[in-house]
Design a protein that fits this description.
Helices cover 45% and strands 12% of the residues. With 430 residues, the protein is α/β, with parallel strands linked by helices. The strands form two sheets. The chain has a five-stranded mixed beta sheet, with helices on both faces. A five-stranded parallel beta sheet has the order 3-2-4-5-6, sandwiched between helices. Bound molecules: 6-O-phosphono-beta-D-fructofuranose. The site of 6-O-phosphono-beta-D-fructofuranose (F6P) has 14 residues, from helix 4.
């Protein structure tokens, strides 16, 4: 994996080479703090140890009873679904086992998915660190009933990944369900390279060991200088640009197999760094599609954005047939991948031409090693950014208010947050 930050030097907003030097001094101090946290396996910092602490053999043996199913249905939300979805999305070409994710409680979507699944050949992978997340438990109860209605013994097809206590741990113990522990000290959004993010891929027969190896290669680059570590460099430069007004970061991968990666990055970046009035808003984008959409804003809107362009150096290609279509004959003989790469480079240059800061990230391929590198580097970037910004990277207190309000609205207890919902200021237009 490599990072090219040439297009953030002297852009607007931008940084200078002198800024980079000063930033590097701060990275060295932050790195020492991070290493202390990793050494002590402190909450959050422990996530950066996962490439050397996760036990893929343990994951595979826990899943032994399920063999190779036709489909895996992961029920979880946030970091308990997005890491697994990112890995399955990136490596879908490695497996014939379908991966589906229920990480919302939209009844029409859930009904359509359950109608489409071969429930008797589907492993239900229920993931929740706390075991109290309303969406996850609600979806589990609905899926379990659908399995029972279909005459499927859900206890034979359900796998649980959870903490040492709580509803899901009790369920696993009561029904002797195969299960794995969520590792200590790893917040959900940092858990992709753990049992949480790897179990689904293991059920699909994906090369989870390769994912961990890729992550390990980026872990081995962590050092006191941003010039050694693409992850640290990305986090430090994104922080410096945010300090200079780039309050949005458009994550724009040029690969359909990285679309979930952008969604996973959005949680990691927003939930970790959006604290005390600080943070940088992750915008999920996709190349080349968003060249016909959001690029207008990125290139000609407010000078308040960083655009992150991600692509694999290699991809399987499809030749575009020769054509005499008016003005399009140049496409003949090229490949779709050639076109996508040309558009990547054109977008990068079009932003630079307007002095709009953008960073290029390249992996050799969207394969096990590549996705492991990419996810680990972004986690390291997040931790570095959080250290430089001085925020509490590994907590998420702001999400609790809404949870209490929703629970109160459903009669799950007396919460002043639910009362506040009733006090909504109204000004309606019909
Ligand atoms: O794994 P759990 O406990 O169900 O939490 C799911 C998600 O909800 C959050 O705790 C936020 O509510 C995320 O940080 C987490 O990834």
């Amino acid at each position: 994996m490599y990072l090219d930050i040439g297009n953030v030097l002297n852009t607007s907003p931008g940084i200078t080479e002198q800024t980079l030097d000063r930033l590097d001094d701060r990275v060295a101090i932050a790195h020492d703090r991070i290493e202390e946290g990793r050494e002590a396996e402190e909450h959050g910092y422990a996530a950066l140890n996962l490439p050397q602490t996760v036990d893929t053999d343990e994951i595979r043996s826990a899943l032994e009873p399920f063999g190779t199913p036709e489909a895996v249905l992961t029920v979880g939300i946030g970091g308990s679904a997005l890491g697994a979805a990112t890995i399955s999305d990136a490596l879908a070409d490695q497996t014939d086992v379908e991966a589906h994710f229920l990480d919302n409680v939209d009844p029409e979507d859930t009904a359509a998915l359950l109608d489409s699944l071969p429930l008797d050949e589907t492993v239900l992978n229920v993931v929740s660190r706390s075991g109290t997340t309303a969406e996850t438990l609600a979806n589990f109860l609905v899926v379990r009933e659908a399995m029972e209605d279909a005459g499927v013994d859900w206890t034979e097809q359900t796998f649980v990944t959870t903490g040492d206590e709580g509803n899901l741990r009790n369920l696993a113990d009561k029904h002797d369900l195969p299960s794995l522990r969520v590792p200590d000290g790893v917040p959900g959004r940092f858990s992709a390279l753990s049992t949480v993010g790897l179990a689904c891929g293991a059920l699909q027969g994906i090369d989870i060991e390769g994912v961990v190896e890729g992550a390990r290669s980026e872990m081995d680059k962590l050092s006191g200088s941003l010039e050694d570590s693409p992850g640290y460099a990305y986090g430090a430069v994104a922080y410096a640009l945010a300090e200079r007004g780039a309050l949005t970061n458009a994550m724009m991968p040029y690969a359909e197999s990285l679309e979930y990666f952008a969604e996973w990055f959005a949680q990691l970046w927003a939930e970790s760094l959006g604290k005390e009035g600080l943070g940088q808003t992750p915008a999920r984008a996709l190349g080349a599609t968003d060249q016909h959409s959001q690029l207008q804003l990125y290139r000609a809107g407010p000078r308040d954005k960083l655009v992150t362009l991600v692509r694999p150096r290699e991809r399987e290609d499809i030749d575009i047939p020769e054509t005499d279509l008016e003005g399009l004959s140049y496409l003949g003989g090229a490949g779709l991948g050639d076109l996508l790469d040309a558009e990547f480079e054109a977008t990068e240059a079009s932003l630079a031409a307007e002095d709009r800061p953008n960073i290029r990230i390249e992996v050799d391929a969207v394969d096990a090693h590549g996705i492991g590198e990419l996810m680990y580097a972004m986690e390291a970037a997040t931790v570095m950014y959080g250290e430089l910004a001085g925020v509490s990277t590994f907590t998420q207190p702001a999400v609790e208010w809404g949870k209490k309000a929703a629970r109160g609205l459903l009669g799950g207890g007396e919460f002043e947050e639910a009362d506040a919902v009733a006090d909504k200021r109204e000004f309606t237009i019909e």
